[in-house]
Amino acid sequence: MRHVVIIGAGQAGSSLAAKLRGLGFDGRVTLIGDEAHPPYQRPPLSKAYLTGKLDADSLALRGPSFYAERGIDLRLATKVTRIIPAKKRIELSAESLAYDDLVLATGATPIRLPADIGGSLANVFTLRTIADVEEITPHIGAGKRALIIGGGYIGLEVAAALSQSGVSVTLVELQERILGRVAAAETSAYFRSLHAERGVRLVEGVGLVSLEGEDRVRRARLSDGSCIDVDFVIVGIGVRPSVALAEATGLAVENGICVDALGRTSEAAIWAAGDCASFLWDGRRLRIESVPHAIDQAETVAANILGANRDYRPRPWFWSDQFDVKLQIAGLNTGYDRIVGRKGAKPGSCSYWYFAGEKLLAVDAINDARAYMTAKKLIDAGRSPSPLDVADGVFT
Amino acid sequence: MPTITFITAEGKEHAVTAEIGRSVMEIALEKSIPGVVAECNGSAACATCHCYFDPAYADMIGAIGEHESDMLDFTASPRRPESRLSCQVRIADALDGMTVRIPAMQ
Ligand SMILES: Cc1cc2nc3c(=O)[nH]c(=O)nc-3n(C[C@H](O)[C@H](O)[C@H](O)COP(=O)(O)OP(=O)(O)OC[C@H]3O[C@@H](n4cnc5c(N)ncnc54)[C@H](O)[C@@H]3O)c2cc1C
Ligand code: FES
To answer: Which domains does chain A have, with CATH numbers?
Structure first.
């Protein structure tokens, strides 16, 4: 019987397994993950789940009987240590398994601070898994002092969640502004004032020199010469694609595991999807870290394993929840040369439209579902409204 | 546990028991009801969990939020008076016997 083995039981891995069955595949499906929990959603980890507003059961992507009912052999707390492509086998800790098709859905790993600046002190955390949250939650409480390093979406979400739990939060961002890598100055400005109003201390253009403490982290020395007392630190400075296994197997790796338009790696029987995979788009190798992309790409790979021969075409979108503000992003803004702002119908709602010349690339919609949904449809259809119409709120 | 019945766009009925407190979207995913996509897993950010809810239960499924209503104006299948984002509707005892119709497109 044909056997599809999926390494990584996260968002992409679980979507892929479910899609194989959804498409009628009746061979063997094995889904192997090194975490203890069945596949779950990560977005709430930096939002409602961090402050106890959601229970672990509601994080699960599928119900408890889902995998067994569909004959998906789900193996948890199991790490794949080696791939032997010449024999079409993989090695787990205690056994080896044969595959016909192998999928790498290994996700990404948070970047840690180097040990020589205090990165390995106790109470210095990263945030990727339920296990990470379990380590952080005992430290959350009124009057505690947290330092967040990195002003990307995850850092800002964590800052919002913690400060809503009464933690006094300082966030430092090395670049001149928060969200500098991912959004326009206008969007940064919106979130800067939101956080400032809610009592988060945002420090931009300032780096961390070192974390200090004997038994655990107690102080942080910053590049502006200041030194602040802290109870715990969360590092949100980005992730690296988990490519160790792929590299050891000799697969092509460049900003992630290289896949072609179908999702195939440089080895014919091995595929990859999700945060770990880089694909060619508009002439460059792109890697997208988002749930919708992980689902779409995984489902495309599932179809291609079964012979669909369908190119993957990303329709990127993303969201972020901070305090009572919902940001929805349609498209990818890389290469923009102009931003057009537009007021929404409701107070406090607005959107920023990224153009390259006359071409609409992306939109950040802030508490503005109407702008988001309009933009998403335009971008998915490859259409661009004129920048003037955007500013006037007119669309064709 | 209350029983609710999903009816797919093709007219196929799936009667399922649903755990109190979970969202209708979560129940649909758990039972693999085709046609509920739920790309954002319940964050009210994607509108791919759009469903038509039995009007007889309109008073029992909770009020529609402003953001939800704005999203519903742009769904892939037409919005109707009984349209909701199924991730925003929670299962309660009073919903026993309710039918939920799934649109043709998300
Ligand atoms: C805190 C946080 C908040 C986020 N918020 C959002 C959001 O609001 N919106 C959004 O769209 N996206 C968000 N994301 C991103 C989103 O969660 C990821 O893009 C998505 O989970 C990627 O899915 P994946 O399957 O590629 O990787 P993952 O979900 O990371 O799954 C990979 C799995 O593979 C396992 N694995 C790796 N190597 C091995 C091995 N050798 N053997 C066995 N198992 C292995 C890993 O442990 C992991 O469980 C967020 C992420 C985080 C961490
Ligand atoms: S699941 Fe995304 S809006 Fe309901």
So the answer is: 3-109+239-305 (3.50.50.60), 112-235 (3.50.50.60), 324-392 (3.30.390.30)
Tell me how far the alpha carbon of residue B50 lies from the centroid of ligand 2, in angstroms: 8
Q: Which ligand is nearest to the CA of B50?
A: 2
Distance of CA A375 to the CA centre of its chain: 22
State whether ipTM is beyond 0.90: yes
Q: Is A170 left (phi over 0), alpha (psi -120 to 50) or beta?
A: beta
Closest Cβ–Cβ partner in A61, A346, A374 for B74: A374
**Terminal-residue alpha carbon distance, chain A:** 53
Q: pLDDT of B30-72, one tens digit each?
A: 888 989 999 898 999 999 999 999 999 999 999 999 999 999 9
Domain B3-101 has CATH 1.20.140.10: no
Residues of A in contact with B106 (CB under 8 A): none
Distances (CA, A) of A218 to A8, A147, A210: 36, 11, 11
Taking CA atoms, A186 is separated from A10, A37, A339, A366, in Å, by 34, 39, 8, 11
Of A360, A345, A121, A317, which Cα lies nearest the Cα of A234? A121
Assigned token pair, A292: 């919708």
d(CA A245, nearest CA chain B) in Å? 29
d(CA A113, CA A144): 22
Question: For A370, which residue in chain B has the nearest alpha carbon?
Answer: B70
Cβ(A319)–Cβ(B68) under 8 Å? no
Say if the Cβ atoms of B30 and A370 lie within 8 Å.
no
Distance CA A46, CA A331 (A): 23
Q: Is the CB of B51 under 6 A from ligand 2?
A: no
Q: Considering only CB atoms, which chain B residues are within 8 Å of A328?
A: 45
Q: What is the distance between the alpha carbons of residues A232 and A388, in angstroms, rounded to a whole number?
A: 48
Alpha-carbon distance A396 to nearest alpha carbon in chain B (angstroms): 15
A280: closest CA among A309, A257, A247? A257
Which runs of consecutive H residues, i.e. helices, occur in A250-392? 291-305, 369-380, 387-392
Instruction: Name the pTM for this structure.
Output: 0.94
Structure confidence at residue A348 as a pLDDT band (50, 70, 90): confident
Domain ranges of chain B: 3-101
**pLDDT digits 0-9 by tens, B76-102:** 999 999 999 999 999 999 999 999 999
Q: Is the distance from CB of B100 to CB of B24 less than 8 angstroms?
A: yes
